[in-house]
Amino acid sequence: AWDYGSPGVDVTKTFTLTNSGNATSGVLTINATIPDFKFVVDGPSDNCTGTTLAPLANCTVGITYQWILPT
Questions:
Q1: Which of 2, 17, 18, 57 allows an S-S link to 53, with CB 3.0 to 4.6 Å?
Q2: pTM score, two decimals?
Q3: φ/ψ (deg, to 5) at 44
Q4: Contact 30, 4 (CB under 8 A)
């Protein structure tokens, strides 16, 4: 499990995506849905979005999770 931090504190995590198949992947998009959070893909550390992965290739993407505080 991953620690999402606490309200008012943004947490950034880097994920590595790997194509373990034997064919090139389709074009990658990054999306996540977690109740009470919004997420922001960290552009400078995202070398996945919009690319394809050859077999056994990988890429990394940084995602910042932000708590959605009640209004």
A1: 57
A2: 0.73
A3: -60, -25
A4: no
